[in-house]
Task: structure prediction
Amino acid sequence: MDPSPTLSAMEITSGRLRLRKAHDADRDGLIELQTDPQVRLYLGGPRPRSVVEQYLEAIGTTSITHNPGTFVIADKTTDRLFGTLVLDRRSADLPGHVTEEGGELELTYLLRREAWGAGLAFEAATAALRAAADELPDQPVLVVTQTANERSLKLAARLGFQCMSTFEAHGAEQTLAASNLHSFKA
Ligand SMILES: CC(C)(COP(=O)(O)OP(=O)(O)OC[C@H]1O[C@@H](n2cnc3c(N)ncnc32)[C@H](O)[C@@H]1OP(=O)(O)O)[C@@H](O)C(=O)NCCC(=O)NCCS
Result:
């Protein structure tokens, strides 16, 4: 396993957003993210509500963001959960890499349906990647998304990620896009 770190920040703020660790009050928003058919369209489909509730009950809502680089995206003013963002390492066991050894930084993002179309994922990703660029040496950073997921691909392109290759996984074509972490330095 690649021991290289991701960013250590517990909280990151931007103009409209606070990327923070989860609170118990985020429970309903987190359940919605896992059960909304539109949000889950390219992520294997919605999960049954009862399964998600049992899972959160078992691990505790706040455990969701326990790992470094894992955040809730919240409204800076109201603290309402808009989504989640993760910057962690893509396991070498998975397909889709730009280095021989794998374990590159990988960005994933998920917004509640009501929060789409306002530039919030772009703002959250920019803030997280900037914080990571200030802390970590320059290195590749990946976005892997279903090729059919136009919104996600558009966001990756807007962030400056370049499409590198495509591959099949989970019964669908995936696009691997990459950038250099230090291109996000402020
Ligand atoms: C992928 C996802 C996060 C993209 O959300 P998004 O809101 O489209 O992304 P952005 O933050 O880049 O916002 C772009 C849109 O906001 C608009 N916008 C409004 N104000 C803006 C601002 N201040 N800055 C930038 N864009 C702004 C843009 O014009 C664009 O609008 P469009 O949808 O009409 O093209 C969202 O669709 C989602 O959660 N999907 C389900 C989960 C998923 O598939 N995740 C991918 C796994 S990696």
Observations:
- The beta strands are 12-13, 17-20, 70-75, 81-89, 105-111, 140-146, 162-169, 172-180.
- The CA atoms of residues 6 and 88 lie 6 Å apart.
- The mean pLDDT is 96.
- The helical segments are 27-35, 49-59, 120-135, 150-159.
